[in-house]
Amino acid sequence: MMARGPKIQIQRVAKSFGAPGRAMPALEEIDLDVAEREFVCLLGPSGCGKSTLLNIVAGFLVPTTGTVLVDGRPVSGPAPERGVVFQEYALFPWLTVTGNVEFGPLLQSRPAADRRRTVDRYLDLVGLSAHADKFPVQLSGGMKQRVAIARALANNPAVILMDEPFGALDAQTREVLQDELSRIQRVEHKTILFVTHSIREAVYLADRVVVMTSVPGRIKQVFPIKLPEVRDRFAHEFTRYESDITRVLREEVAKVRA
Amino acid sequence: MAQFLSSVPELMDAGLRGSRLPRGRALALRLAAIVAFLVLWSLLSGAVVVLKLFNPIFLPGPWLVLGSVLDMAVRGPLWIHLAATLERVAMGFGAGAALGVALGLAAGHLTPVRNVVEPLVEVLRPIPPLALLPMFIVWVGIGEASKIGFITYATFFPIFLTTVTGVRQIDPLLVRAAQSLGARGVALFTRVILPAALPDILTGLRLGVALAFFVIVISEFIGAEHGLGYLINDGRNFFLVPQMLGAAVVLGLLGYAGNGLVRLLERRLTRWQHPA
Description:
Chain A is α/β, with parallel strands linked by helices. Chain A has helices spanning 50-58, 97-107, 112-125, 141-154, 171-188, 199-205, 236-257, and strands at residues 8-17, 24-34, 39-43, 65-70, 73-74, 82-85, 159-163, 191-196, 208-212, 219-224. Chain B has 11 helices and no strands. Chain A binds chain B through residues 58-60, 77-80, 82-84, 86, 88, 90-96, 103-104, 107-108, 131, 134-140, 143, 151-152, 155, and chain B through 6-10, 171, 173-174, 176-183, 187, 191-192, 195-196, 198, 270, 272-275.
């Protein structure tokens, strides 16, 4: 066997919206590889097309040009190999916490005992074992997002795509969930593509931060984050990454305002 | 009743809502309203007799009506008429519901089906179903088929329309989430689209049950030998006012029970909306 290539390959992907002729470009010529077990954050001013790019990788949107490969195979529509965690949680309200986490394994017709084990394991991982029989309406936002993360993990996807997953949460819950996700990643070692507009969040979680330009989105600069696995938000090194990225990003935000 | 509140939002919600009206008091109020209605009715029919306003045969008191119902029950004919009506409603509504839900799901989910079915429904729907009853009789005759078919026709519309609405209102994010978890085709339909549309479908069924009892009476006025509608018409022919009112009361109770049955089904199937 040859050495394995990158897990996700985004090749010359561009996307414009609207009728041909008057189309508005949203993304321009994106090239990006994500290695196996790598955590990559897409960071950019709002409306820069980072969510568009994630939706293309998820298979919800078709790129105008270019292709996305996952494990070397081109993406053509949503598939269970690419798990998605949405900002709005998107839990199935008619299913309990258990039912939501079990959704993927049930579709794969895995035996009941096996499903039971999977559900127990991931509910335990996100700290929701005590709420297994509750319905989504009974959960807080933070709890809902934990269920959504457990649901994505339980399906054992090749990659996980997260679209501003903590964007709807209050600041405290947000940091708690960042801690949780960082801890989960140290256990699970998934390949994760994560969209955010929070610099702190990106530096805290990512192995690599990809800063995008304002619309039409291009890759402006890539910051490999060389920090220990367990990160301290107040460490000198941490804040230096923050200020470096802030400087680069500020130019882009200024362009949007101008 | 102690309630388990596990989170701050839940606590706050409970605090803002305040404690609910005690169940006993609400029930007492409801019963009192019914008793007041019966008393008022008795007083009115009594006043007609005393003041000689008009022939009291036009407004028999509630006890005479009840007596007539009991008499029919004891002698037996009530059950034959009741069974005839219930059978027609069950068959007609059952067919209407099956057709409405099936076509509604297809039209809500598949655009080509919607483009074919919706214009036809939009053209036929504004015609009051009762206006078409004579046509049903001309086409199908005055037998059972026209009565059942007529209920099917009338109940189809609300059930079809709420089902289409239910399917079309599904949050596209839920569909995307399901697809990313591997749901496609039939699985996507049975595991996501159907449960998501279920609350609206059940609302349509409730409207359909009410409509079924509404139209069955009139179709039983014409060319029927049994049924509660026949009892009312028969009462009119022979001036048996207590029988007319009695049959109407029984119909009311049936409609109430039908509605209650669907509500029970609703509560069982959509418990997730208001879990204990």
